[in-house]
Amino acid sequence: MLFHDLTRPGTDEIKVSDDSLLEIEHVTMRFGGLVAIDDLSFTARKKEITALIGPNGAGKTTVFNCITGFYKPTVGRVMLTHPRKGRYYLERMEGFKIAQQADVARTFQNIRLFPRMSVLENLIVAQHNALMKASAFSFAGLLFMNRYAKAEKEAVERAKYWLNKVGLYDRADWDAGNLPYGDQRRLEICRAMCIQPAVLCLDEPAAGLNPRESLELNELLLGIRDHEGVGILLIEHDMSVVMQISDHVVVLDHGRKISDGTPEFVRNDPTVIKAYLGESEDEDLPQTVKNDLARNAGKDV
Ligand SMILES: Nc1ncnc2c1ncn2[C@@H]1O[C@H](COP(=O)(O)OP(=O)(O)OP(=O)(O)O)[C@@H](O)[C@H]1O
């Protein structure tokens, strides 16, 4: 496969496997004296769900912020091999271009819908880049006036497609803020999918969901992987989600990678168990407490 650097010409060609989607290479992020990420490297592959897990403060959101342009890594490289467009060096791009040109989509820990806009409007607004390009506010749009009508029709069709997928079609005209919490979470994922992303980065999508909503989330994410062919990078504390749907799990602790492999490998890795349970996998803890802790770490007991 041929790659070209779309952000800076003349960069040396680097060997990357064909199925690589995101390559995090020796990334370090410092905030003054605090090292939030410490020499982190891992690969997220195309058409896979990669989960980034770790105890609170491990550096997971900081990794997302480095990928999506909210932070520039102090050291290291973040490469995206876009399935349709070629390679991007994200750490060199202006933040807004990472979404606009490299098609990196993201959701946040807290819901960030426009609550007073309708469900459908939230999905149309997400597609404003494509609509602006086709509008009379762009040169190309002026030359081809019918382009806007076509782009608008496509945006509405795409929105309807996703609303149908998650069973929100009949509530398209509701204010987004009036949807139940679990539906709002899924609407956020639909909104991210409406930009036809190269990679979908989800920060704790299962937070606050009940078990039924978690199952629906699992189905939605597996569908995005299997039917849309979009790679997902997922931060998640809910191990029932992580262990059931991930192809690949990367574990962070204090900014360092401590494990990397299949869910099966990671859940049995003693280093991971120690990071979650602490040094003393205590003899003196009651068995029920040990079981609860192990279950939270995604380990069968
Ligand atoms: N902008 C910032 N300035 C200073 N320190 C920061 C900043 N952002 C993150 N940190 C610190 O970096 C460390 C990692 O934080 P981060 O939010 O990435 O962890 P996390 O694994 O996502 O945690 P959680 O699971 O609780 O969301 C923490 O010590 C945090 O306080």
Topology:
Elements: E1 20-31, E2 34-45, E3 49-53, H1 60-67, E4 75-82, E5 86-89, H2 95-100, E6 104-107, H3 119-125, H4 128-134, H5 139-143, H6 146-165, H7 181-193, E7 199-203, H8 211-226, E8 231-235, H9 239-245, E9 248-253, E10 256-261, H10 263-267, H11 270-277, H12 287-296
Parallel strand pairs: 3-8, 3-9, 6-7, 7-8
Antiparallel strand pairs: 1-2, 1-4, 4-5, 9-10
The structure holds adenosine-5'-triphosphate.
Task: Explain what you see.
One of its GO terms (biological process) is L-alanine transport. GO terms for molecular function: ATP binding; ATP hydrolysis activity; L-isoleucine transmembrane transporter activity; L-phenylalanine transmembrane transporter activity; L-valine transmembrane transporter activity. This is Branched-chain amino acid transport system ATP-binding protein. Keywords: Amino-acid transport, ATP-binding, Nucleotide-binding, Transport. By secondary structure, the chain is α/β, with parallel strands linked by helices. The protein folds into two domains: 209 residues, P-loop containing nucleotide triphosphate hydrolases (Rossmann fold); 84 residues, Rossmann fold, CATH 3.40.50. It has twelve helices and ten strands. The chain has a six-stranded mixed sheet, with helices on both faces. It has a four-stranded antiparallel sheet with strand order 2-1-4-5, covered by helices on one side. Helix 4 runs antiparallel to helix 6. Adenosine-5'-triphosphate binds next to strand 2 and helix 1.
